[in-house]
């Protein structure tokens, strides 16, 4: 497996798309060209390169050699599912579209993101409150 430099845009694109095998789907020049075409926006480049990889996987569906028969549409389905989860899932924070606004109110998508992180990634808020209630205000330890 080749060593991937995550500090470069090509390395970041490869890691986000899982294109890290010895025989990659796309060469480095394609990743770099798409990255530059997308105005150096990594998220747009991930979507565009992902659709290119899907295109490659779409025609590699069935092979037959003598008695061995392989149906390879699973790779297409799994990569398509991976792309859908990567682009549409709000837990992948930097891929979620957030409309710009000049109002001082907090955007509902940002509020959802903050609530999600507070309540579901670090334990629920009620669990934290219950734990805090067991602590002694003077000693800082748990009541016994």
Describe this structure in words.
By secondary structure, the chain is mainly alpha-helical. The chain has two domains: 97 residues, no CATH class; 47 residues, no CATH class. Helices cover 52% and strands 6% of the residues. It contains six helices and two strands, in the order αααββααα. Strands 1-2 form a two-stranded antiparallel sheet. A hairpin with a 2-residue loop joins β1 and β2. α2 crosses α3. The longest helix has 17 residues. The radius of gyration is 22 Å and the shape is elongated. The termini are far apart. The model has no long low-confidence stretch (mean pLDDT 75).
How would you summarize this macromolecular structure in one to three sentences?
The chain has 144 residues and is mainly α. The protein has helices spanning 9-17, 28-37, 42-58, 73-88, 108-121, 125-133; strands at 62-65, 68-71.
Supply Rg: 22 Å
Mean pLDDT: 75
What is the H/E order?
Answer: HHHEEHHH
Helix content: 40-55%
Strand element count: 2
The number of domains is 2
Query: Looking across the biggest beta sheet, what order are the strands in?
Result: 1-2
Q: How many angstroms does the end-to-end distance come to?
A: 55 Å
Strand content: 5-15%
Features:
144 residues, mainly alpha, 6 helices
Which helices and strands, and how do they pair?
Blueprint: H1 9-17, H2 28-37, H3 42-58, E1 62-65, E2 68-71, H4 73-88, H5 108-121, H6 125-133
Antiparallel strand pairs: 1-2
Helix pairs in contact: 1-2, 1-3, 2-3, 3-4
